[in-house]
Write a sequence for this structure.
């Protein structure tokens, strides 16, 4: 039964990757109109996400456990089990990659859409539908939530039903969400928006490095 379920999940994600490639232009255009990034970057983002979803599809059938080394007479097994419903928050700088990268947060998940871009015909909702075919998923597997950010956050993170919080964003917002989730001791996965250090040595191509760093920081 487990193999059949894993195979079904993989099939859905492979189909999602194909749909993403078929609709790259429409998805990239929606992302640019909604978020404002250059169209070329939106196209590259959509293409990368298709490859990422294919990777997740392969991982669906490679959910392995482990047997740990123990003293004679003892045996320890590590088995992976679903966490349960999770909630994911991601920023708008990567409107296609952000939601797709949260697929690893859990099989049952809710994502919060910013009220300034949300709506019944939101490009954000359209992209989510393209990444994960809604007709193949139960309504409880993926939900896109619209509303006032603080109210939505407080309601979801105080609920004992939600078992995990996945967050990408600023340190300040992350601390706030952590406080909201502390009452129910949820599992957490963080990705902070920070400025990584750059090491410059004597043999550095200064102009090339500066151009590369400026592009990376701007994106």
């Amino acid at each position: 039964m487990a193999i059949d379920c894993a195979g079904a999940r993989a099939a859905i994600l492979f189909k999602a990757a194909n749909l993403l490639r078929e609709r790259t232009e429409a998805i990239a255009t929606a992302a640019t109109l909604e978020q404002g990034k250059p169209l070329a970057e939106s196209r590259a983002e959509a293409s990368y996400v298709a490859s990422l979803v294919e990777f997740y599809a392969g991982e669906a059938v490679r959910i392995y456990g482990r047997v740990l080394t123990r003293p004679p007479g003892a045996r320890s097994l590590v088995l992976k089990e679903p966490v349960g419903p999770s909630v994911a928050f991601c920023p708008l700088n990567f409107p296609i990659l952000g939601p797709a990268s949260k697929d690893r947060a859990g099989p049952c998940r809710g994502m919060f859409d910013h009220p300034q871009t949300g709506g019944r015909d939101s490009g954000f909702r359209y992209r989510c539908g393209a990444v994960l075919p809604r007709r193949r998923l139960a309504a409880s597997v993926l939900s896109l939530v619209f509303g006032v950010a603080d109210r939505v956050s407080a309601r979801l993170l105080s609920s004992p039903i939600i078992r995990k919080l996945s967050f990408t964003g600023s340190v300040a917002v992350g601390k706030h969400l952590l406080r909201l989730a502390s009452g129910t001791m949820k599992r957490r996965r963080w990705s902070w928006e920070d400025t990584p250090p750059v090491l410059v040595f004597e043999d550095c191509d200064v102009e090339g490095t500066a151009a590369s760093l400026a592009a990376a920081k701007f994106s």
